Amino acid sequence: MMRTSGWTPILEGGNGPTYLAIANAVAESINKGELRVGDRLPPQRSLAALLGIDFTTVSRGYAEAQRRGLLEARVGRGTYVKAIQRPSATLTNVSGIDMLINQPPPFDDPTLEKRIWEGVPAMLAERGMEMLMRYQVPSGAMRDRLVGANWLTQRIPGLGPERVLVCPGAQGALLAVSMMLASAGDTICVEALTYPGCLLLAKELGVRLSAVEMDEHGAMPESLDAICRSEKPKAFYCTPIVHNPTTITMPLDRRIALVEVARRHKLPIIEDDNYWPLVNSPDDSADALRELPALASLAPELVHYISGLAKCVSPALRIAYLAVPDQSSAERASVVIRATASMAAPLSAAVATYWIESGLAEEMLSAIRTESEARQAIAHRHLAADLENRHGYGFHLWLPLPVPWTCNAFITQLKLSGISVAGTDAFSVSEAPDGVRLCLGAPRTRNDLENCMRRIADILHLKSYEPSQVI
């Protein structure tokens, strides 16, 4: 027998946007037995009035719960709790989830997908045979540099194309800058936990890395100053926004303090700012990014700034923009790019320019933000109390491991469940506490992520765990 439910979601203290909190409340109420199969939910307008929120927010919440398979809408009759086929708690639910690479989550928008592709042929034809049959200059075509500079003006006001180079991905930009600033045997400072690509690159170049200690606000100025005094490093590489892997975002006072240390020692800074577009959400209050200026805008004379499109638009583009302090640095970077890669692929650069100019890049970014937001909410629902940083930006998380877990033991247990993750050793320059990075973009669907997060939480909180149990 169907019944009309007087259900009212409790939304206070939730993570993420209100519409996701409504969908999460539906799931929780079903799990608790407060909502049963066949129950009719309150009409959307009635619930909106009761909660004092917009009708569209309730509509999005119901739609999200329907997408998860929790509800079904019956035309002219209302919204009902659907019979749910729960996946069995077997290891096969999460088999084959590879979280070793931090990639943006796939979004499901057929209309946007069609528009992404349909304009490319005309764009390529407009560029003509000159692009197809001629090598480009190493710094990139001026049109592509101009568009890149415009894309970055939110982070570096007044940036002109003469200081911007188009690079073959962020890793290519990092290679060029590292070779510009350091030689084999030299030292570069990095955060105690840092991007694995930097570790690999330093090893190949014969560059020594020195770890700057970190706290909850990121790299510590006192530690950087001590290294500068004792080791005379050639540069400081850091990720101030949504740090990889810890997700720490440096507050303004920390940025200023680090810049002061660098200025005092005339130390070049390599700023990896690949994640900034994920923070620049229209829903952020008080214009969050303006409160967190890029180091390149605080110290343009010192900073070599890298921002790619792989994390915020498409990993397939392999296009990044490198902003350097002056014309001399631009000329030097151009020589290194020619020596290492000849140039960024002109076809990729042209597609990047077209997507940015047409507004498609911003729409793709918005879709990635929305999907990331939803996946963050899923992860926080299962692991909120265990996470070190609980903001909802980006699509990776850092999970510190409680005693008695060790990295090797925990990673092994996850691998037995079909989940591959990277632990402290993949990011550390020196000894650091045990933890693992969770890449939320790896599972194909939100349901896959739900199962994956549930399994990770189950393993993390095994009350009967003993080190001897690990195979």
UniProtKB/TrEMBL annotation:
<dbReference type="InterPro" id="IPR015424">
    <property type="entry name" value="PyrdxlP-dep_Trfase"/>
</dbReference>
<dbReference type="GO" id="GO:0008483">
    <property type="term" value="F:transaminase activity"/>
</dbReference>
<dbReference type="InterPro" id="IPR004839">
    <property type="entry name" value="Aminotransferase_I/II_large"/>
</dbReference>
<feature type="domain" description="HTH gntR-type">
    <location>
        <begin position="16"/>
        <end position="84"/>
    </location>
</feature>
<keyword id="KW-0804">Transcription</keyword>
<dbReference type="InterPro" id="IPR051446">
    <property type="entry name" value="HTH_trans_reg/aminotransferase"/>
</dbReference>
<dbReference type="GO" id="GO:0030170">
    <property type="term" value="F:pyridoxal phosphate binding"/>
</dbReference>
<dbReference type="Pfam" id="PF00392">
    <property type="entry name" value="GntR"/>
</dbReference>
<dbReference type="InterPro" id="IPR000524">
    <property type="entry name" value="Tscrpt_reg_HTH_GntR"/>
</dbReference>
<keyword id="KW-0663">Pyridoxal phosphate</keyword>
<dbReference type="InterPro" id="IPR036388">
    <property type="entry name" value="WH-like_DNA-bd_sf"/>
</dbReference>
<keyword id="KW-0808">Transferase</keyword>
<dbReference type="GO" id="GO:0003700">
    <property type="term" value="F:DNA-binding transcription factor activity"/>
</dbReference>
<dbReference type="Pfam" id="PF00155">
    <property type="entry name" value="Aminotran_1_2"/>
</dbReference>
<protein>
    <submittedName>
        <fullName>Transcriptional regulator, GntR family with aminotransferase domain</fullName>
    </submittedName>
</protein>
<dbReference type="InterPro" id="IPR015421">
    <property type="entry name" value="PyrdxlP-dep_Trfase_major"/>
</dbReference>
<keyword id="KW-0032">Aminotransferase</keyword>
<keyword id="KW-0805">Transcription regulation</keyword>
<comment type="similarity">
    <text>In the C-terminal section; belongs to the class-I pyridoxal-phosphate-dependent aminotransferase family.</text>
</comment>
<dbReference type="GO" id="GO:0003677">
    <property type="term" value="F:DNA binding"/>
</dbReference>
<keyword id="KW-0238">DNA-binding</keyword>
<dbReference type="InterPro" id="IPR036390">
    <property type="entry name" value="WH_DNA-bd_sf"/>
</dbReference>
